[in-house]
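Make up an example, fold above all:
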Amino acid sequence: STATLSASATGGQGSYSYAWSNGSTGQNTTISIAGTYTVTVTDGAGNTASETLNVFSATAQSLNLVYARKI
């Protein structure tokens, strides 16, 4: 099974880029194992915000964890 982690940022300038600790880029990442995942969001002005998630089970077919953060 796999799970999807999603991130959302607000309050920054321009468009956002997302970088996940598992190498994924984009607003969402798909995982197949439990673990610790970090997403770093960068806005168009180069400001960054990071959030770390501890996922204890990746067995759900669809697990959407949405973190909204102002940059």
Observations:
- Residues 61-65 have pLDDT under 50 and may be disordered.
- The chain is about 0% helix and 55% strand.
- The longest strand covers residues 35-43.
